[in-house]
Amino acid sequence: MKITVLSLFPEYFEPLLRTSIIKRAKEKDLFEFETVNFREFTKEKHGHVDDTPYGGGAGMVLSCQPILDALKSVRTPRSKVILLTPQGDVFQQKMALDLSKEEHLIFLCGHYEGFDERIRDYVDLQVSIGDFVLTGGEGACMVICDAILRLIPGVIKQESSHDDSFSNGLLEYPQYTKPPVYEGKAVPEVLLSGHHANIAKYRHEQALIKTAKNRPDLLNDLDLSEQDQKVVDS
Ligand code: 6GU
């Protein structure tokens, strides 16, 4: 997997690559990461990458030329090109899983302003991370890269992502570690029992209960068994 980010602020991504799990994965060469500053591609004599909007109005609009020339310089027939925009499809775990299997992802990040609408004709996908507005696509891109990279084999233990929230359509079951009692709050007895079938059943039920309580909307997309439906209704 190779990730190329087109951004006016490549330094935004340094902390992601310098820290923790993603840093170790990078050191193990489990992925390649590069940033391209599309300002370097502008033909505008003062180095500008944006201009005033036709029709008037506040703010500036990112021009086609610098972004699309930068894109041309990195794109191959096997690249998947993603534009970060609050107007895009909302990013979800399923999309993270699909994108983690791609050979080359190219992300286009705008800052402060909108893109010339014609830029959208050159991308495969427009993605948003939710219904709020950021100053630029970089923050969203970092979130998306983190979610994708942890799904690449070898980045984290396979089992760790198997039970992720959302991976089976439910939120993750509750987890506990030592001590068995903290300020009078005891770990559920079944988890100390060593009985694997009972533990699996308990966890599945707890995932259902937590999802029904915190995110009932997620249950609409699931085909629950009669048994599961009883747990949710209880
Ligand atoms: Cl992808 N970009 C910006 N600028 N704001 C956002 C977003 C993306 N997703 C949610 N808000």
Summarize the structure.
The protein is α/β, with parallel strands linked by helices and about 230 residues long. Strand 9 and strand 10 form a beta hairpin. It has 9 helices and 10 strands.
Keywords, separated by commas or semicolons:
single chain, 234 residues, alpha/beta, Alpha/beta knot, Trp Operon Repressor, Chain A, 2 domains, 10 strands, 34% helix, binds 6-chloroguanine
In total, how many domains does the architecture comprise?
2
SSE sequence, one letter per element: EHHEEEHEHEEEHHEEHHH
Going across the biggest sheet, name each strand in turn.
2-1-6-5-8
Bound molecules: 6-chloroguanine
Share of residues in strands: 15-25%
Gyration radius over CA: 22 Å
Please give the share of residues in helix.
25-40%
Q: What would CATH call the homologous superfamily of the largest domain?
A: SPOUT methyltransferase, trefoil knot domain
Based on CA inertia axes, which overall geometry fits?
A: elongated
- End-to-end distance: 45 Å
Q: How many strands appear in the DSSP assignment?
A: 10
Explain how this protein is built.
The protein has 234 residues and is of the alpha/beta class. It folds into 2 domains: 2-158, 3-Layer(aba) Sandwich (Alpha/beta knot), CATH 3.40.1280.10; 163-233, Trp Operon Repressor, Chain A. Helix content is 34%, strand content 18%. The protein is built from 9 helices and 10 strands. The chain has helices at residues 14-18, 20-27, 64-74, 93-99, 137-149, 158-162, 196-214, 216-219, 226-233, and strands spanning 2-6, 32-36, 50-51, 61-62, 79-90, 104-108, 114-115, 125-128, 181-182, 185-186. The strands form 3 sheets. A 5-stranded parallel sheet has the order 2-1-6-5-8. The protein has a 3-stranded mixed sheet with strand order 3-4-7, with no helix packed on it. The radius of gyration is 22 Å and the shape is elongated. The mean pLDDT is 96. The structure holds 6-chloroguanine (6GU). 6-chloroguanine (6GU) binds at residues 84-86, 127-130, 132-134, 136-137, 140.
